[in-house]
Design goal:
This protein is an alpha/beta fold. The protein has 16 helices and 13 strands. It has helices at residues 17-29, 44-47, 55-65, 75-78, 81-92, 127-130, 142-155, 178-190, 194-207, 213-234, 239-250, 267-273, 345-353, 365-373, 414-428, 437-444, and strands at residues 6-11, 39-42, 68-73, 97-101, 107-108, 115-116, 135-136, 311-314, 320-322, 328-330, 336-339, 375-378, 383-386. The strands form five sheets. A five-stranded parallel beta sheet has the order 2-1-3-4-7, sandwiched between helices. Strand 9 (320-322) and strand 10 (328-330) form a beta hairpin. Helix 8 packs antiparallel against helix 9 (194-207), helix 10 (213-234) packs antiparallel against helix 11 and helix 11 packs across helix 12. The chain starts with 5 loop residues before the first strand and ends with a helix.
Length: 445
Amino acid sequence: MIPKTKQLFISYRSVDATQVDKIARDLSLLKYDDGTPRYFTWQDKYNLPPASPNWWDAIVDAIIGCDMFVFHLSRASLQSEVCLAELEYAHKRNRPIIPVVLDGEFILNPQSGRYDLPKETWPLVPAWLAQTQLLFYVSTEFYGKFQSAVEVFERAWPRDIDAKRPLNPDSKSVHGSNHALYAAACDYAERLAFADAEKHFDALVRRNDEDYAEAATHWLKMIRHYAELIEMVEHRSPTLIFKRKWTAYQALFPNDYVDGIFDPREFATRAGSGQTTSQTPLQPAPPIPTPPTPKPARPGSVDLLPAPFAWIEIPGGQGTMKTDESVTLTIPTERYWIAKYPLTNAQFRLFMDAGGYREERWWTTAGWEARLKGWDWDATARKLVETGKPWIEPRYWQNSQWNGAEQPVVGVSWYEAIAFCLWLSEVTGEQICLPTEAQWQYAAQ
């Protein structure tokens, strides 16, 4: 019998996690008219037992137990022994396979007028997969086409074919070089397969490799700390103890071997909000709409953000006020609170560490587009231009003149400011937004 709610096995390379996480989250939000979820997603970094020595066995079991196999195709995944082993086993089990070509991995073929893989990618595609219709991730039409692909399988649901369990790719000599060994170790760490990651990092340390020994030592320290945090969450440890352990973990950063803070389970948000129980990854929260004017109750976040931070209550009033000789604004009638101090770099870093520049749900549609295209102001032409370099931090974040922890954060666009407010609203449960022109003027006067 064809299941109504289908279990999707999400196959991907960890370097593509930003795109894949969004796709998996969006798929888990799709529902039938009666509210029944269309899909549950199985993703290793959420569903694998942490620090399990049986990492590959759990992967194989998940493929056997899934209804459909979603292969996120990129040059990285096509060159990953693990991803190819997953794909080959799903093919042998006759699982319905949907190959999703990720954004940036395909081109528009000028001869056919269709999307296609670059010519240098095709040789990496298994011969049998090359005969399959590829699904290209074009966000405006992707989810409709995904459901159409599922409906094709539903017309003649493939039978399960028993197949011999594949060996762990690590049993092959695929990591002969230290470069490949380090890449595999980082990939395991991102998937939260800590037992396998430790084995690889430990090998680099014992070899005393001049390129990777120091980096591997840092990684070992990080993942051992992080494994303990996961265990604390799973066992509902007291918030105070979790926060203390989280603070100790944060002290390991920044370092030269990780971009930002290593936090695949996004504990930064939970540590800040005082929650230590993990949410079910199969049911992510829907995107947060732009919040309305703050409700008349003292906002939170004072304890979340490092000093200096304080709210000032602004009482409601009656009448109007002038901004200059030509503009008159109506005084806000309801009381509200406004931040006493400018936002600091240390405070903005919490947003960045929580995945602020990776999580689309905290951005407006135009803001996310601006972030990806790297919009910048051309003073000569007096217009916005696309730099092609996505924003990953405020404009002057690396400038030592402006990046002191307690200095006001500078080089932040309106879009980034809105994203920060939406993130802060989520983690505090309050409605926090930028002040309107009237609110700002009234508070200043």
